Amino acid sequence: MRMNGSPERVRRAGGQAGAGELLELVRSGRAVTRGALQQATGLSRATVGQRLDRLFRAGWLREGAGGPVDSPLGGRPSITLEFDDAHCVVLAADLDTRHARAAVLTLTGEILAEHAGPLVVGEGPEVVLAELGRWFGELLEKTGRPAADVCGIGLAAPGPVDTGTGRVVQPPMMPGWDGYDITGRLCRAFTEHTGAPAVPVLVDNDANLMAYGEQRAGHPDCAAFVLVKVSTGIGAGVVVDGAIYRGIDGGAGDIGHIRVGADALCRCGSYGCLAAVASGGAVARRLAESGVPAASGADVRDLLAAGHPQAAALAREAGRRVGDVLATVVTLLNPGVLMIAGDLAGTPFLTGVRELLYQRALPRSTAHLDVVTSRLGERAALIGAGALVVDHLYAPERVEERLRALGV
Ligand SMILES: [Zn+2]
Question: Which of 96, 116, 320, 377 could disulfide-link to 352, CB 3.0 to 4.6 Å?
Fold first, then answer.
């Protein structure tokens, strides 16, 4: 609690702020000068200096390009500090059912090299993860960065993920992947193709990582952010107070399998799921039944982009079905931003969502709600995966151990 205008101080649990807390203050932009760090932590000038020295020696901090700014403690203007986002790189990959995208990113999410191509998750984890390892090796060569510069790998998967183990759990769209050791295999694929030492691998659900990437990039002040991905399947990611909300088993946001009372068979084996009637896959099936060639969400996206009237009508109808479910979602979570992303995210679908959402939800839940489309587009999950890895590795509780391993 803040009292009498004296700012809340940042401390490590049970003690003074360490190098990790100082780095966090700089990375978040809350304190970017030595004076501001002293003020935020209550540490002496000498102690702040010692801790910053370690971060400089590790190559994690640099002096800001913006030049000196006025010090909060008065006196001479201070040099600004910033996180050095080039001292290593992150690898990220986003798996969809029939294609994938992979990239090398800076620590602040800038894409240095990228590749997208066909990759079928149905071929199983051995084949898919080995191929991703090969892509990573080629992408690193393109950037000219040595593989030893890679600090971690993030992977977005189109299914429910237990982030504690990095394994997918009963994924309807990923046959053969249930319980498979994804992190171990992907790490091995990376080391085999590059000769680099093992690095941490983090796996999360694609809608979660899209939400994380989009919230940070475009809505950093939104404390309750919901993203709904409507492609071949339907999933949602929830970011609350800047962190992905996963529930206790990683199952939060899996709205595609809410029963909506229809009789269509879903890929999960049940009847009447939302995804069975309102996903890109469902719209493709309806189109195919009436003689329009379409087999996936990506095919529907192409038809929508070409202004195909039947595809637009079916997308709007799908939007209404999703909007009906989202009325419950916004009533429960009261988000500030509801983002519609994925293959179907376009005007017809959004129109359908709005029609039902505003009709069914309580006015108080939607009074300050922005319903928007994606800003990062097809790169959202990659950028979210990269950010997840960086936030994990540079979290205050891991900084001390990593600095000691670097010998600083
Ligand atoms: Zn289902």
Answer: 320
Report the candidate in 263, 265, 259, 315 with the shortest Cα–Cα distance to residue 287.
315
Asked whether residue 8 carries a pLDDT value surpassing 80, the answer given is no
CA dist 321 and 339 (Å) reads 16
Rg over alpha carbons for the chain, rounded to the nearest Å, is 23
Q: Which domains does the chain have, with CATH numbers?
A: 19-83 (1.10.10.10), 89-207+382-406 (3.30.420.40), 220-380 (3.30.420.40)
Cβ(158)–Cβ(298) below 8 Å: no
- Alpha-carbon distance of 170 to 165, in angstroms, equals 14
Q: How far is the CA of 253 from the centre of ligand 1 (A)?
A: 13
Distance 330 CA to ligand 1 centre (A): 21
pLDDT, position 71: 64
Answer whether residue 5 shows pLDDT above 50.
Answer: no
Give the global pTM: 0.92
Structure tokens at 75: 């006196």
pLDDT tens track for 86-95: 999 999 999 9
Give the whole-angstrom CA distance, residue 296 versus residue 49: 57
What tens digit of pLDDT does each residue of 259-292 get? Answer: 998 789 998 899 999 999 999 999 999 999 999 9
The amino acid at residue 145 is: R
Question: Ligand 1 centroid vs 267 CA: distance in angstroms?
Answer: 6
The β-bridge relationship of strands 337-341 and 224-230 is parallel
DSSP string, 39-89: HHH---HHHHHHHHHHHHHTT-EEE-TT--B--TT-SSPBPPEEE-TTSSE
Two tokens, residue 60? 């994690």
Concatenating the DSSP letter of every residue in 238-273 gives EEETTEE---SSS-TT-GGGSB-S--PBPTTS-BSB
Give the distance (Å) from ligand 1 centre to CA of residue 257. 4
Q: H/E element holding 225?
A: strand 224-230
Residues 6+ apart with CB under 8 A from 283: 294, 297, 300, 311, 314, 315, 318, 344
Q: How far is the CA of 202 from the centre of ligand 1 (A)?
A: 26
